[in-house]
Amino acid sequence: MRGKSWKAPFAVVAAAFLALLPSQTAQAEDGYDLWLRYAPLEGAALERLQAFNPVVHFDSATPDSETTDIAIAELERGLASMLARPLADDGQGKIALHCADPALPADGSFRLAGAADAVTLLAGSDLGCLYGTYALLRELAQGADPRSLNIASAPAMPLRMLNHWDNPDGHVERGYAGRSIFDWWHLPQRMDERMIDYARANASIGINAVAVNNVNARAFMLEARYIEKLARLADAWRPYGIRVFLSARFSAPRDIGGLPTADPLDPAVRAWWKAKADEIYAAIPDFGGFLVKANSEGQPGPQDYGRTHADGANMLAEALGERGTVIWRAFVYSEFDETDRHAQAYAEFVPLDGQFAENVIVQVKNGAIDFQPREPFHPMFGAMPHTRLMLEAQITKEYLGFASHLAFLAPMWEEVLRADTGHGATVAEVTSPVGMAGVANTGSDRNWSGSDFDQANWYAFGRLAWDPTLSSETIAREWAAQTFSRAPAFLDSVVPMMLGSREAVVNYMTPLGLAHLMGTGHHYGPAPWVCDLERPEWNPCYYHRADANGIGFDRTESGTNALAQYAPAIAAQWADPASTDPIWLLWFHRVSWDHPMPSGRSLWAELVHRYDSGVAAVDAMADSWANLAPFVDARRHRAVTENLAIQANEARWWRDASLAYWQSVNGRELPAGTPAPA
Ligand code: GCW
Q1: Atom of ligand 1 nearest to the CA of 173
Q2: Of the listed 297, 358, 492, 547, which one is catalytic?
Q3: Three-state SS for 257?
Q4: Are residues 116 and 213 in the same domain?
Q5: How many domains does the chain have?
Q6: Is the overall model pTM greater than 0.90, yes or no?
Q7: 396 and 259: one domain?
Q8: What distance in angstroms lies between residue 174's CA and the mean position of ligand 1's atoms?
Q9: What's the gap in Å between 18 CA and the centre of ligand 1?
Q10: Are residues 177 and 275 located together in one domain of the fold?
Q11: CA-CA distances (angstroms) from residue 465 to 152, 154, 392, 417, 431?
């Protein structure tokens, strides 16, 4: 079907279109189509697209590839669906694809330019054409006029990656959307069609790399039988621009290789990894590389042999050579360090700056503790100028109410990406030359992410990795328009609701810089009273340090001095409780319950106020959503309503249990005017 211009015979398109209709309606209502619904346009937007009367063309220089075929099929599908009719045989408005423009880089960049009778899509590669196709459809799905499009887009970050914490047995660690989407049992012979839908969703937001298995890895995933399975996925995803990575267990040479050691300096160990890498590349020529969690939470690593993280990472990097990348995680903390978990990763990694091989990336979580509802940016950002650092975010909501609480995470990621490290760059600037990883929230649930609004976090992650300067508001608006309704009245109400949702969670769970107060192990409900766990840093009481006199973690000079790991200008701004933004207060300081807050309230009154505002915000979300029923199909509207009811109840649970506990410690009454507990 290649040539100067391509058009399927009208009858074929019409038949395909009719076949699409009923299932599409059903899918739209169960969320399976994600943001790729291409709901029929209405009003002026429909008239404009009808008048434009699109038809797809591409020039002869465009490479004949599966990727361009996918782009064309997607255009046909999206346009027909939005027009609610098959593309006409005698279409006038050319959507003209030029996918081999030498003036544009082959990294996925593209340009879209509208004119009276054509939209030109220029790209330096077929993948750029695919990305441009999705951008065009995204604009049209929001009602844009094709003739006035003018977009030039390039990926800010080369690596835009999902990390799946999926175990080979189908269980997903910290997964709240059902079982794993990867069917290792039937691969390689049978591949679920869902794998294509998944690739399509990722490509539509620019995600280009996937680590398919949990960082708490099983070594057998490196065996030949799994490489064969992975190769099938790699083949299926390649046209969508996705490279596969494997989480590798550091002790694999012992676990599955029959060697007595996994010491990274042992020649037999090095030879084993080299042979393993060769074996993988023979099956998957564009294999991305290894993701490694080492010497963290009981995982094996180079320190087991008295070696450093750099020794371990460099050994794997040598095995991969120029073919791939080692992504080495910096999420480390030890039960033997009595001082402050906050300071450990920096202490272990920063002295190694400059020692990592060129094809090693160190992957750093957004904050120094662990994916809390709010954390200041990790002090490692900007502190390792000779090391490639990548940001790790968590899309799945381990500490933010799983898939039942609504929390749109773009504002959280925006907060960290825009943070000034004090080393002459923001976190986005430090990480943009490298990349961003998100711990996936996908699962076997029909709606992929466990709830309709959790799809927005997957979407937002991809959009921010592509362009970290995008605002949360832009992302929320485009997502909601594509997913639910493009009606301005709907968007004007749902977007603010999404934008405030994460702050609501912060307020009813861990206000004013509190952190890690969730129930042990599951991390769901409140448990600030827990203080008897063997490892001190797993106890909520380790983090809040509340007693009759006060509350908070002193990380200044008079405390653990973890603050000194930040650049001087940043540390200075957080050194004094008086100059510290209240959102970080108890993260860095221990203050008395009477500590005066900028609001004029005492700390205790402010804390109570924040819990209350968190609860009130959830109630307001439920009210807003109730009013949006006319814009959303009944099925998805009800599903969100039910979750909001759970959240309203559990926000009260968090507030009341937390306040009751603080009162048991400080012996204080609730300030006058506090609403009664539920
Ligand atoms: O957030 C914590 C989780 C663990 C996870 C770990 C990590 C994969 O509670 O489940 O393990 O972080 O990031 O390695």
Answers
A1: 10
A2: 297
A3: coil
A4: no
A5: 3
A6: yes
A7: yes
A8: 8
A9: 46
A10: yes
A11: 16, 11, 11, 10, 10
What confidence tens digit (pLDDT) does each residue in 463-475 have? 999 999 999 999 9
Ligand 1 site residues, Cβ closer than 6 angstroms: 165, 173-174, 215-216, 293, 297, 331, 370-371, 398
- Cα-flanking dihedrals φ and ψ of residue 37, to 5°? -75, -30
Out of 370, 378, 402, mutate this one to test ligand 1's pocket (max ligand atoms within 8 Å of CB): namely 370
Cα–Cα distance for residue pair 222/226, rounded to 1 Å: 6
User: 402 and 448: one domain?
Assistant: yes
CATH code for the domain in which residue 468 is found: 3.20.20.80
88: nearest Cα among 9, 20, 147, 24: 9
Distance 143 CA to ligand 1 centre (A): 41
Q: Which range marks the domain in which residue 432 is found? A: 159-483
Q: Do 318 and 454 reside in the same domain of the chain?
A: yes
Cα pseudo-dihedral 220, 222, 224, 230, rounded to 10:
110
Please tell me the predicted confidence (pLDDT) of residue 8: 45
Q: Which residues of the chain have pLDDT under 50?
A: 1-13, 15, 18-27
pLDDT at residue 63, as a whole number: 76
461 falls within a domain: yes
CB 406 within 8 A of CB 132: no
Q: Which of 398, 452, 606, 650 is catalytic?
A: 398
Beta strands in 395-440 (DSSP E): 435-439
223 is catalytic: no
Give SS3 for 360.
strand
CATH number at residue 656: 3.90.1330.10
Task: Give the residue from 131, 153, 175 where a domain finishes.
Answer: 153
Residue 95 and residue 212 share a domain: no
Whether 375 is covered by a domain: the verdict is: yes
Q: Residue 197 burial (CB < 10 Å; 0-12/13-18/19+)?
A: middle
Q: Are residues 560 and 617 in the same domain?
A: yes
Same domain, 354 and 207: yes
Q: Which of 296, 297, 524 has most ligand 1 atoms within 8 Å of its beta carbon, as the pocket-test mutant?
A: 297
* pLDDT of res. 339: 82
Q: Is 214 helix (H, G, I), strand (E, B) or coil?
A: coil
The reported pLDDT for the residue numbered 432 is 98
Q: Closest ligand 1 atom, CA of 371?
A: 1
Q: Is 297 one of the annotated active-site residues of the chain?
A: yes
- Specify if 447 maps to a domain: yes
At residue 28, the pLDDT reads: 54
- Which domain-ending residue is among 153, 182, 214? 153
Write the DSSP symbol of residue 148.
G
Q: How far is the CA of 293 from the centre of ligand 1 (A)?
A: 10
Query: In ligand 1, which atom is closest to the CA atom of 394?
Result: 1
ipTM: 0.99
